[in-house]
């Protein structure tokens, strides 16, 4: 009798499994593919039809449930996704991005502080970056010496020191920092959020901008410099949420263009909840800005610190057209809805592909927002920078790790801007 019951339950389970397959489902959803120098997994048709019952649990608070953690019990091939270094969604273009021998290596274990503003200085072959956590006084920055094998990581301080760079780029021999922190006594001096430069050869820093008609900026977060020398930057409110400033926001979240030649600052967009990454296309025709408004907090003085994650909040990259002789943007349209966490660091490759740091990894999109490849890491990635003679190495920086990717996707040459 017991054996008959077990047989019945087994048959019932088989029927339930067969009924769970929707018409059109293909298997396997995932398979190993491409070069063997890394763990590369190709995703069939973007996993657009999954066999039932699949489930991706909702994210709560500060914990995100990634695409790789989706439960798909009726296709065991999906188990390959979590362990992959690279997920390829468009096989033809994706494998071209990876090249013949891609690698992903965790080079340094670092603290769980936010690590940001990676800037590569070709003449020194060094990568400069920041670490954002609120110790007493100002924050030292970090430098990766790529002349050493293996590379070395050390602290450094500019003269005068700079408090909490959160975004960075390279232009005309200088590091440009978006400075996010604001305090009336940092190393004995007052500093406010704005734009500063660092001469990496002399270690001297200079303030270019520190207010908007007397108001403190909130968090000059990320920036790029165009060929005219104008600095385009985003100004969300994260410094207050994370207590890197002593003053609640005085301005709405917005994005700006700053002309160092005249001192003029003009608003270019104020439609995003928390504008974050910002980047320029190689031809100069388009500007990309990410909105990480699903991570936001209280702007009230004395309110709770931090910016908890709301899964259904804004977490997208937007594309704009550059107009008015390259001084403003228009034509806002959504480009990419982040599959994991929020689109933080944002840059554009030499071929026009858009690259964004999203949670434990980095997504590569074409210029129309179609996902091509994802790099998967063991830590939250905040930002990244291309390095090396051919600009085909990418360094990823974030919470708990600094990693290096070697592949075939080339970065823009910031020593010779064309746009």
TrEMBL record:
Matching Gene3D superfamilies: TolB, C-terminal domain (2.120.10.30)
Residues annotated as domain SMP-30/Gluconolactonase/LRE-like region: 194-293
Listed SUPFAM superfamilies: Calcium-dependent phosphotriesterase
Keywords: Signal
InterPro entries assigned to the protein according to its UniProt record, in alphabetical order: 6-blade_b-propeller_TolB-like, Oryzine_lactonohydrolase, SGL
UniProt signal peptide: 1-20
Pfam families, per database record: SGL (PF08450)
Entry superkingdom: Eukaryota
Record-given protein name: SMP-30/Gluconolactonase/LRE-like region domain-containing protein
Species annotation: Friedmanniomyces simplex
